[in-house]
UniProtKB/TrEMBL annotation:
Residues covered by the Cupin type-2 domain: 5-65
Pfam families assigned to the protein according to its UniProt record, in alphabetical order: Cupin_2
InterPro entries: Bacilysin_H2HPP_isomerase, Cupin_2, KdgF, RmlC-like_jellyroll, RmlC_Cupin_sf
Origin species: Neobacillus rhizophilus
SUPFAM superfamilies to which the protein is assigned, alphabetical: RmlC-like cupins (SSF51182)
Gene3D superfamilies per UniProt: Jelly Rolls
Top-level taxon: Bacteria
Protein's name in the database: Cupin domain-containing protein
Length: 79
């Protein structure tokens, strides 16, 4: 399952976890990405793998920042 999420500067994707594996691809802009307590800056063209049940979240560093998230298995809670 793929979802595209847009953020404005300083918007937060709260720290959370889920049983799905996830890959996040930065389509546009930049983010501060927290993966299991380790924070890194990611920019357009970067991708991050998030294992199942791993705490993660983001903060947008620019307006019009976009993440493409890919989940497996499909996220029933998004339907």
């Amino acid at each position: 399952m793929m979802t595209e999420v847009s953020f404005q500067k300083d918007a937060i994707g709260a720290i959370h976890s889920h049983p799905h594996e996830q890959v996040s691809y930065i389509v546009q802009g930049s983010f501060e990405f927290n993966l299991d307590g380790k924070v890194q800056r990611v920019v357009k063209g970067d991708s991050i793998y998030i294992p199942s049940n791993t705490l993660h979240g983001v903060k947008a560093l620019e307006d019009d920042s976009i993440i493409l998230d890919v989940f497996t298995p499909q996220r029933e809670d998004f339907l």
